[in-house]
Write a structure and sequence with these properties.
This protein has 1 helix and 6 strands; from the N terminus they run H-E-E-E-E-E-E. The chain has about 240 residues and is an alpha+beta fold. The chain folds into 2 domains: about 1-125; about 155-235, Elongation Factor Tu (Ef-tu), domain 3, CATH 2.40.30. The termini are far apart.
């Protein structure tokens, strides 16, 4: 009876050991499989980590490039703003110059109008002088014709043409280049005579008589002092 119990115990113990061996083997296989799976997952995670690291590097490089582009764009924007300010300043300057130029043009137009009015006055004065010359020449002819009639006139004494006569310059026409004096045939002046113009005691010019009326004559300037030209009111002498 004792032998059977020990056999049974031994068989049970062997069965238990066999079961334990199988269990450990199965457990080892499972653990090995899990370790292999974990190794695969670790390798996959390592690859993903490397890819993530590479992606990070790429993104950092792109970010740095973007920052550089941003800095360049910011500098370009600042340059454009500076150019805009300069252009605005130049525009304001041109506007002020345009206003100044417009004012200058208005002043010049005003001056032109004034000069046109002065020219019109001089033309009127010139016409008046020409009419006066025509009347004077006509008067001299009437006096000549009157001398041939039977009308008795009082004797007229005419001083010598070389005597000192108070002759003055009536007018000076610079445009047509002639001088009008207040003496003519009544003072013995003839065409071609050379007369001298004085300002006080200083001679300032020399004129040659071209046309002669009774009490007026027209002459052309032969010489004028560089700093004192012939003017109205100056004295004329033979």
């Amino acid at each position: 009876m004792k032998v059977n119990i020990w056999r049974i115990i031994t068989i049970i113990a062997l069965c238990a050991l066999a079961f334990m061996a199988w269990y450990l083997r199965e457990l080892n296989a499972n653990v090995t499989e899990q370790i292999a799976q974990m190794t695969k997952e670790r390798m996959s995670l390592s690859k993903k980590l490397i890819a993530s690291y590479d992606l990070k590097k790429t993104l950092e490089a792109e970010l740095a490039s973007s920052n550089e582009e941003k800095t360049a764009l910011q500098a370009a924007i600042e340059n454009y703003e500076t150019d805009i300010k300069e252009l605005n300043g130049e525009m304001e300057k041109r506007k002020e110059e345009s206003i100044s130029l417009s004012d200058a043009i208005n002043l010049k137009n005003k001056r032109i109008s004034e000069l046109e009015n002065e020219i019109a006055k001089y033309e009127e004065e010139n016409t008046r002088l020409r009419e006066k010359l025509s009347v004077s020449f006509g008067r001299g002819k009437r006096y000549k014709n009157a001398a041939a009639t039977d009308v008795k006139l009082e004797p007229i004494t005419v001083e010598s043409r070389y005597a000192k006569v108070r002759i003055k310059v009536l007018d000076v026409n610079k445009e047509y280049g002639f001088v009008v004096i207040n003496a003519g045939e009544n003072c013995g002046i003839k065409e071609g005579d050379t007369l001298f113009v004085f300002r006080g005691s200083r001679m300032v010019g020399e004129i040659e008589v071209e046309r002669v009326g009774y009490d007026v004559a027209v002459a052309k300037p032969l010489y004028e002092h560089p700093k004192d030209a012939i003017r109205r009111g100056y004295t004329v002498k033979f």
